[in-house]
Amino acid sequence: MREQSVTRADREPVLTVRDLSVTFTVDEGRAPDVHAISGLSFDLYPGEVLAVVGESGSGKSVSSLALLGLLPHTATVTGSARLGDLELLGMSRRALAEVRGRRISMIFQDPSNSLDPVFTIGYQLREVLRRHQPQLDRTQRQARAAELLAMVELPDPEQRLRFYPHQLSGGQAQRVMIAMALASDPQVLVADEPTTALDVTVQQEVLDVLRRLQARTGTAIVLITHDMGVVADLADRVIVLRRGLPVEHAPVRELFAAPAQDYTRTLLEAVPRLGAPARPDPADKRDRPVLDVVDLVVEYRGRRSGVVRAVDGVDLEVLPGEIVALVGESGSGKSTLGRCALGLAPITSGRVEVVGAVLGQATPRAVRAARRRIGVVFQNPAATLNPRYTVGQSVAEPLAVHGGLRGEALRRRVAQLFEQVELPAAWAGRYPHELSGGQQQRVSIARAVSLDPELLIADEPTSALDVSVQATVLELFAEVQARLRFACLFISHDLAVVDTLADRVAVMQHGRIVELGERSQVLSSPQDPYTRRLLDAALVADPDEQTRRRDLRLSQAS
Predict the structure, then answer these.
(1) Mean pLDDT over all residues of the chain?
(2) Between 217 and 149, where is the model more confident?
(3) Hey, is 253 helix, strand or coil?
(4) pTM (2 d.p.)
C-alpha cells in the first residue's frame, strides 16, 4: 500500500486509527468467520476530507460503523481509534452515547429510513439538541433548530420546521440529516454515501453545502462512497479498500493522475463518462412505435395541495429496437410517465398506446395481453425480488403464469435466462440475500426479458450500484438489448449512463419534455438551458476539472 504523508506541523490529528480490524462470527461459530476489515490505519486532521472508497463488500461502511460502536454483537473489533484523548474502541455503550452526536456524528445514506415519518422535522431536531445540549431551554432549541436549517441552506427554515419528512424532497431530507449531524458542532463527521441516488443538480447542491459547512466550522469529514466523481469533488485524501484490505492511500490529485494499484485503475476506468462514440441508428423510422404517447396529462388531486400536474402535455414515441432515455430531476415527471406506460398511473387526458393497445380504451383482456409483452427493471432489486422465493423461482414465475411452462421445460428456460445474464444456472437455488446488488439486478433483468418483451421499461436500474458493478450491468444490458432487439424506455438521472446506452434522449422538467433528440446532439450541443444545467452539474472523475467547474459556478453566482 502506498501512503503519502502530509506535513501538518501546526496541527494534531483529530482522529487517529491504527490497525482497525473487524471480524464477524457467522452462525454462532459453525461457519468460518468473515474478516470484514483488516489493518486499516489513518490520521484525520481538522478541516480535512478523507474519502474511503471501494466496492460493496470492501468494508468501507463497516469501518465507519466500528468507529461509532454501531456494529452488531457478532462483530469483534480490534485495534485503536482515538478521538482526541478518547479511545473509541472498547468504550462502554453509555460512554459512546455521550460521544456520538456530540464529538463524532454520522450522516447515513438514506434519509427516508433515518427520519421518523411520524414527527415533524422541528421535533426531531429539537430532540437531538435536548439530548446533546441539555442546557438549552425549549425556546433556545427552537431557535437553534431554525439556525441549523439555515446553515444547510434550506429555504424558509422556520416554516420547514413544521414539515414532515414526506413533505421534503430527497435532497432537502439529506440536508436535514446534515443539520442533525452538525447540531452539536462535532469534531468529526462520518458521511456514508451522502449523495447516492440523488439527482445531479441536487447532488451538486448537497456537496456544496458540505464544503461550505466544513470551511466554516473546520469539521473533519470521513467520506464513505463508491462514487469517484464525489471523491474528485470533495476529498483531500483517499483510501482505497478491497475485500477488507487497504490497498492504496494517497492525496486525491495524485491518486487520480497516477494510481499505483491495478484495482484503483480498474475503479477509475469503470466510471462512465460523457463523450461516447457515435452509433448506427438501430430503429427504422417507418416502423410503428412500440410506445406512443400523445399529449399526455396526469393530474393528482390533494386535499391541501389542490391539483398537481405531474405530466403536462407530453408527446413521446419509442420505436422497435431503440433505447430512448428519459432524464430529469426528481419531480420532473419521468417516473410517472413510465408508470403510465405500465398502466399503473391515472391518465387525465391524452393517449398512451403500448404494443398496440390504447390504455383506457382497450378491453381488459387486450391490456393484459399487452402487459405480457412489457418487461420492467426497477431501481432496487432487493425490494422487487421476493425474499421468500429463490431467484430461480422469481425468474420462473412469469414463465409459469403467462407462458404456461412447467416441469423440465421451465427449468431449462430458467437456466437459459441465467446464462444470458452471465450467472451460473446452479445459482437458481439461491435466495436474493445470498447475492450482491449487481447479481440481484442481473436476476431482475433475466426476469424482465423472460417473456421476450417488445418493450422494456428500466427505471434507474444502476443508480445504487458500485461503479465497476454498474459498468458490468450496463454492458450486459446493452448486449441483451442488442440480441433481443426490444424497445426500451430508460429512465435515469445519470447523464453518463444515458450517453453509454441511449439512442435518443428526452429531457423532462416540471412535467414537460423541454428537449428531445439524438443522444449525441442533446448531450454535446444542448439547446435548452435546463439541459445545459444538468450537464454542468454532472460530476466527473477529475479533481482539477471539478475545481474549475466549482470556481466558475461560484464566480457566476457572485
Answers:
(1) 87
(2) 149
(3) helix
(4) 0.80
